[in-house]
Amino acid sequence: FPGGKGGNQAATIGRLGGNPVFLGKLGSDEFSASLRASLTEKGVDVSHIIECNGTAGIAIILVDKQGQNSICFTPGANALLTVEEIYQKKELFQPGRVLLATFEIGVDLVYEAAKLAKSRGMFVIVDPAPMVDLPNDFHEYVDVITPNETEASLLTGVSVSGISSAKQALRQMIDRGFRLPIITLGDNGLIFVDKGIAQHVPGLDVEAIDTTAAGDVFAGALTFSLAHGVTLLEAIKFANIAAGLSTTVKGAQTSIPSLGLVMSRMKT
What we know:
This protein is α/β, with parallel strands linked by helices. The protein has helices at 5-16, 30-41, 83-88, 107-119, 149-156, 163-175, 214-227, 232-246, 259-267; strands at 25-26, 50-51, 58-63, 69-74, 98-102, 123-127, 144-145, 180-184, 190-194, 197-201.
């Protein structure tokens, strides 16, 4: 299936009716062509993707009987994007736009992209996956950060395994300077801070068959909502429903729900 964290997130925004522009790197192989075609089909502007010799990133995803997944991947062309190439595309970094980034391209690149985005009046959302050590001032350039339980544990040192421990991790993240941390908890939903108070949003009641890309759908749907000016709580509820619905379909970009389906579920 077409995938990749950044690709899944961009595809989610496009599938929901947004106007995402993808900045990244692909190879010259058939997988790269397939990924480009899938993004285009979902409404993503792929004209700024940089092509190089080599292959696209490829992942092997193992899904158990409960629909939970574990992933082994080789980054391919993803690992070849440079800071210089990001600055060569600085015309994309415009006031009022939203930057959504993951660590699959490397934390150093995300750090530089976030600094560039904030210097040009953008809103920055970071999905810290896969989790690595962060620069000490990373929080200064991030508006929203969306770790899952494992990533929140690595980020804070708190073993996150439920709502109570997630609240502890949230407090530590806020103490470290992160303005709007959101910890996703799988089928337990998510937890975030609103006006200084930790709030829990339960997971969607669905029969999950494949959780692959659910976190990416959440990040993409959250970005889509916030870019349209809704409140943080409404954006989180929207993204939570979109992520839950995505677990009912196999695959990554193939599992992204339509805007109509998400809105219909929100009403109920």
